[in-house]
Model the fold of this input.
Amino acid sequence: MKKLINAVDDVLKESLEGFAAAHHDLVRVSHEPTYVARAHAPVKDKVALISGGGSGHEPLHGGFVGYGMLDAACPGQVFTSPTPDQMLAAAGAVDGGAGVLFIVKNYTGDVMNFEMAAEMLTGEHARVLTNDDVAVEDSTYTSGRRGVAGTVVVEKIVGAAAEAGADLAACKALGDRLNAATGSMGVALTSCTVPAAGGPTFQIGDDEMEMGVGIHGEPGRKRVRLAAADAIAEEMLGAIGHALGPKSGERVLLFVNGFGATPLMELYLMFHAAARLCADRGLTVARSLVGNYTTSLDMAGCSLTVTRLDDQLIELWDAPVHTPALRWGR
Amino acid sequence: MKKLINAVDDVLKESLEGFAAAHHDLVRVSHEPTYVARAHAPVKDKVALISGGGSGHEPLHGGFVGYGMLDAACPGQVFTSPTPDQMLAAAGAVDGGAGVLFIVKNYTGDVMNFEMAAEMLTGEHARVLTNDDVAVEDSTYTSGRRGVAGTVVVEKIVGAAAEAGADLAACKALGDRLNAATGSMGVALTSCTVPAAGGPTFQIGDDEMEMGVGIHGEPGRKRVRLAAADAIAEEMLGAIGHALGPKSGERVLLFVNGFGATPLMELYLMFHAAARLCADRGLTVARSLVGNYTTSLDMAGCSLTVTRLDDQLIELWDAPVHTPALRWGR
Done:
């Protein structure tokens, strides 16, 4: 294992301390229990958005805490669910009196822990469960479809609505609608390596790819020979299109997400391939995002995410956002 | 070689087309000769900043084209200098009548080609040469020190000055002063792989690191056993400190730059290590940047960059910037 770390047990804490120091104008990090919150929280009378999950997917979720997006994020150990005490502490810190919306990726551990936190929470609260990964039903850590990079789109757009004053029910309804309008699929060229494990999560041949991989290196649909970028994009968009059923003439958000070790040059090349395929199907790529936003440590590969858009969603996507990892407007 | 590409010869073109499509609100890409320019260029009466160099370092330089930073960038093939015709075409497209400032990383090919372009240019022009890499004198592609991630700092701060109306002489003087106030050093844990080469640029053992590596995988100071993050940060900051000589009580910009395959988690951990060492030396980390900004394709590792700051440099760093890869303010 080759990593820029000190002791394996200190990776999360030291990384979060670096994150807090680098972005002290935007966020603060609390320890024991661990959560990331906006530097100026709570925001009075605004629905508080809280997400979280295992670490190793940075910038998800801590990198999306800030104006126009999340109020707090609860990082677990690498690829390990955070615990209810973290969620309760985060809720206590950021609830501005308009209730708490938990945005939870569909993994069994995350779902269970966020449910336990919700049961203990006295204030008003609701939950949006993301399950945008169209690759497989039921997986290593999941019952049903997995929640992956589409979660970023949900957090951005619901975050904008909450900032604009939407109430808890409206935020939840918007999040559910967005999740249903969003599909993703990934491909891995190499494995990731979890620091505490000390070696690769899975073995893969020099000429192979894992099509439909999960963001923890979970198996996808099939292990096949590495194909050309155009063919990979076509297979992924085909699967997403099958699940989402966008109609010719519709506007979409196209999001190419790197898993961590794939150069930006290749991500833009994948965007080029995917955007042309969208055009071929009569879809207008009205908005786009390219970069490492939902990673799997040092895995090489990427995912494609498509969200069906309308005027309201575009307006909310364009609204100002001011977080460590996503920043525009204002 | 495992890459998300189609034909090797089409990598740059397809990637640039994806880049142009994803950021059509900010930039446009011209082909034959190839350059990236602001979507709205030239800017009348503003000094035009043009940079360029081999591709494979994305987002450098095309990702820094936009308001408050570069006016144009000339990408060569991967790790290959762009040619004078690209620079002349870019200058023609973005010169707003106040002259052109070329920002050139110190590599023999880049220096030669930008000099040829400058000789052919009839309008007023000047050059800033960056050579912030303190690791070695003279290297595979360089006479003298190499220009690396510190170039981003030069482009940001001189870009802000140009936007505020500084004339060509002032922009050049500021760039030269910034370069002298900036030092960098890198470490590689793995090699990069150039698409056209088809295999790793260099071999490195499972327990080794290349200390002082260049951004094309050039040899650094020594090949040694992989050390802990704290020890790596200490060695790199020691070398930078030796070259820059910052005094106790000074403010600095601390920039942790990922080479492409190192997770954000590790980059923040390195920031934590480096920021503590700065504090130990009495330096105030007044501004910071953490992420993949000057990459070496899929190389694992990172560089540290330190810039000695003053009130003017801080104000220019904080000024609005609106590019694909760096965006704040406004």
Notes: The CA atoms of residues 13 and 31 of chain B lie 8 Å apart. Chain B touches chain A through 60 residues (CB under 8 Å). The first helix of chain B runs from residue 11 to 22.
